[in-house]
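Example with several molecule types.
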Amino acid sequence: MPELPEVETIRRQLAPLLAERTIVDAAADANPKFTAAPAAIGGTVTGVDRRGKYLLVGLDHADGPRELVVHLGMTGQLGADIDPGGPHVRAWWGFADGGTLGYRDVRQFGRIAVVPAGRYETLGTLGRIGPEPLSDSFTPAGLWEGLHRRRARVKTVLLGQQVVAGVGNIYADEALWRAGIHPAARRVGRERAAALHAAIRAVLAEGIENGGTTLRDYRTVTGEAGRNQTRLDCYGRAGEPCRRCGTTLRHAVFDGRGTTWCPACQPR
DNA sequence: GTTGCGTCCTGGACGC
DNA sequence: TGCGTCCAGGACGCAA
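Resulting structure tokens for the full complex:
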């Protein structure tokens, strides 16, 4: 399930692969989530950026600068070696030099859009997305204010993308474990918000350093698995002893999301 | 405006 | 071995 570290890993591989190439052909699945892919035809790639979990491919186009926006959802994969006619391929783009870029997505939770550059207001979450967690715009005070305004569970707020961008289920569990905060807490003080701020940055930075977390579907552009899954302290370890205190980690569903936490280190 | 639940979607795991 | 059921979760729609 691609979160910020996985998407950033893909972005870093994709940028040199797509640089200055012109899209001359494309096709998409009938699912409306993907039908926008051909709107990139005619564009020359100017760069590959990322915002939260969204990949932003800049395009120099005759009708003005555009952006190809790709969200990988749960099982989305991008790759030059993805056969456009292969199973679960929802879209592909062909380049003037003859190569292709395929988008495969088994569960179809991803989505593709093409918009005028920088115009994200029609894209729901991306139009309201919060600060990049590894940038200076994400501060302990800003996180505290974002949490303080809300009465939802702290983990639900993190997953909402409006207080901080790019955090998904895995890294939310990991960051809350590191900060010692119960995932269902509805109030977080300034001190604990600062600890959570540091934890979010740390787990995401480590995730990027390790090339992302592969639990099942995630693969880089070159088809490799990430290495971060061996470093997880909390997510997916329910029933096992906490690495900090030895207490058995618990699992429950909060707001529809499977959640693992340590009842001793993360008291309610 | 906020919160929380249901839905989409499919392969794998599991039980019988 | 084969079948049915459950589970995973990001984003979005909708009701309260």
